[in-house]
Design brief:
The protein is built from 12 helices and 9 strands. It is α/β, with parallel strands linked by helices and 256 residues long.
Length: 256
């Protein structure tokens, strides 16, 4: 198997009621299925951990939060079942975040693409730096942001979601993303952002866990069908990736 598909990791640290999840991959934090599965599992486990009150989700490195799913894994898909499993990777992370009873703070230090935008949309509160521009690039390789679409649309609205989905090669600035509601605030530096996250997390640790659990439930009202919905969306993408059009689009993208 391709070495890149086997790389990457998810680490977790718990201190004073705050759990910090950090995911990483040497190729711009583009995540293969193995890492996405571990990320979804980690979020789910923390949801039932009595020592955890609030969760911070971050990635390693400086200028890229997440470049989406592993391109190396994408180009290896040769059948529908493998395609469904591949596109279920971010679906499972989004659903894990949605169903986790703890509030999740996102830390977006740099660019977010595709699944990375979906992840930033699936947290409950998200801070970012000025470098954290966003792009939904899926249509540019013949697919479409079907899996992350519900999470992104829920956060920024149909208009902003469709803008990103249609203009798939366009970067949208961090200030644009803040204006649309994806980010609660943006900062000049990662250090300033980390200070703000620390202040917020410590406030939340002192808050009523049951009140936060119930409050999160109200935020996600109307999404109980997402387990099934995102499976259906993964199947759509899994079928598209096998089409001649998409195979050619991916080849052109690879050879750029």
């Amino acid at each position: 198997m391709d070495e890149a598909i086997e790389q990457g990791d998810v680490k977790c640290n718990i201190e004073s009621g705050i759990a910090v999840i950090e995911f990483s991959h040497p190729l711009s934090n583009s995540l293969p299925g193995k890492v996405l599965a571990k990320l979804a599992e980690t979020i789910t486990d923390l949801g039932t951990n009595d020592n955890v009150v609030v969760i911070i989700l971050k990635s390693a490195g400086e200028r890229v939060f997440c470049a989406g799913a592993s391109f190396d894994e994408l180009i290896s898909i040769k059948d529908l079942e493998t395609g469904k499993i591949f596109f279920s990777g971010f679906a499972n992370v989004i659903n894990a975040a949605r169903k986790c009873p703890k509030l999740i703070i996102g830390r977006v230090q740099g660019k977010a693409v595709g699944g990375g935008v979906g992840m930033a949309s699936a947290v409950d509160f998200c801070y970012a730096t000025k470098h954290a521009s966003v792009k939904l690039s899926e249509l540019a390789v013949g697919i479409g942001p079907f899996v992350v679409g519900p999470a992104v649309q829920r956060k920024v609205g149909s208009s902003a979601m469709s803008m990103m989905a249609i203009n798939a090669t366009q970067w949208y600035s961090a200030d644009w993303a803040k204006e649309k509601g994806l980010y609660a605030d943006t900062f000049e530096t990662a250090e300033q952002m980390d200070t703000a996250i620390d202040v917020l997390a410590k406030k939340l640790v002192q808050s009523n866990p049951e009140a936060m659990r119930l409050l999160k439930g109200t935020f996600w009202e109307g999404t109980d069908h997402w387990d099934e919905l995102l499976k259906e969306r993964a199947a759509i993408s899994g079928e598209l990736v096998l089409s001649e059009f998409t195979i050619n689009a991916i080849d052109q993208f690879k050879n750029k």
